[in-house]
Amino acid sequence: MAAASVWSVDPRTGNPRAQVAVESTSQEIDQAVRAAHATRPALADRGLRARLLRTAAELLDEAAERIVQEADAETALGPVRLTGELARTTAQLRAFADVVDEGAYLDIRIDHADAGRTPPWPDLRRYKIPLGVVAVYAASNFPLAFSVPGGDTASALAAGCPVVVKAHPDHPATSQRCASVLRTAACRVGLPEDVVILVHGFEAGVELVRHALVAAAGFTGSVRGGRALFDAAAARPVPIPFHGELGSLNPVVITAAAAEEQAEQLGAGLAGSMILGKGQFCTKPGFVLAPAGDAGDRLVKALSAAVSESEPGVMLDPRMRDAFVAGVRERAALADVETPVAPGAGRESSHPQAAGGQSVSAGFLTVPARLLAAEGAHDLLLQECFGPVTVVARYDSDAEVTAVLSRLPGNLTATLHLSDGEAAGEGRGAELLAELTPLAGRVLVGGWPTGVAVAPAQHHGGPYPAATSTSTSVGATAIERWLRPVTYQTTPGALLPPELRDDNPLGLARRVDGRLEH
Questions:
Q1: What is the per-residue burial (b if ≥16 Cβ within 10 Å, else e) of 262-283?
Q2: Catalytic residue among 207, 282, 400, 422, which?
Q3: Does 187 participate in catalysis according to the annotation?
Q4: Which residues are CB-contacts of 492 (< 8 A; sequence separation ≥ 6)?
Q5: Phi, psi of 506, deg, nearest 5
Q6: Can you tell me the distance from the alpha carbon of 344 to that of 141, in angstroms, rounded to the nearest whole number?
Q7: pTM (2 decimals)?
Q8: What digits encode the pLDDT tens for the residues 81-123?
Q9: Backbone φ, ψ for residue 81 (5° rounding)
Q10: CB 76 within 8 A of CB 313
């Protein structure tokens, strides 16, 4: 049987643009993994890895205009958003090059033999080594920063792991172009181009996670798809780490005092965050606990005004649009749920290429929080609905807030808005912060969760289903996902890796006999 064609499709019209590739066969997946596996010795050179990452960033910047045009044609995310995403992507590559140069990620620890201890200590030397081939599953909603040249690929290459990327079907042409840039960068610095290989197709994703030479996987996508791959990774004869980002409600708690002080600003800010990128950010605030009463009414009024003024837009593909429309309809049909601004199928968009039948309009639902305090018919409102919609649950008491928070699943983010007095230590601020902390990997006090800074202290992950591990996919420590520690005991110096020798020929930071040395 002939392999199925892979087409680039314009989400604004639903029309095919061009055939990009064909779906990879089982034999081609095997060849790709084996070819990537063969590049591991070359990737062991830290200097070459750092040069690869910086060269990839340079080449992506040089190709920026073509990449942004291609990505916009396949995702409808717009040139402004995509230009910013590409800048984030290249900055991320350069940041991981700095991580490689610094070498602290190796976590080198040396304890010399000490016969005076009880029991005696032998000579022990520990550092971290790369796992091997990493399978990366590209995201739909970030065709650059969480796809072929994105954080999973950058951190895996930084760790010394070759990468086989499974392209997302929503942007195959963008994926092809970016993969070509990365492979060219590898050749430029003297590495095999197969340190990065791109494959296509649903079955390719399944074959990858099952392949014996794949040592770990990184995934950004839906709960259903991610959980299936996670289970497949765990069911292998030799299970492998599966670092998945699956789904997140990203709850927001607005205290009554905060609403009293800044209802209008909070309503407008919430609107801007929930409709950003047509509600297709993994950190979209999808559930808000806001007070009943006058202050809460003012907040809802401001939210209604801001959301009503937003333009309809196109989602990433018709399947997601249909799921959004159906999900909103099902939620809005629940008893006591109101729709101050009805989300769903959109009116005509102002974009010159957009077909009205492809667009969606933003909106939000409201519901009494008491209906969510215990298990019942309204539990659907505590599940993520991908797209430009949020649920505002109006509470009458602190007890209702606590009861609802106790029922929420794990999240990437949780946000708390306080009054000035509460932020200074008055009232329940500290108590609410303590209630939110177990729910998420990143807890905000003030501001909105959309936008994830690529910084050393960042954590992008959270309790399941936000993620399938305790690791982060953003920031310097994302490299740790693709490494494992190994300790050498009583090993002659001539046989040790240079990183662990007493003379420290590479000049790396190390902890020796309990003391940090540079």
A1: bbeebbbbbbebbbbbbbbbbb
A2: 282
A3: no
A4: none
A5: -95, -5
A6: 19
A7: 0.95
A8: 999 999 999 999 999 999 999 999 999 999 999 999 999 999 9
A9: -60, -45
A10: yes
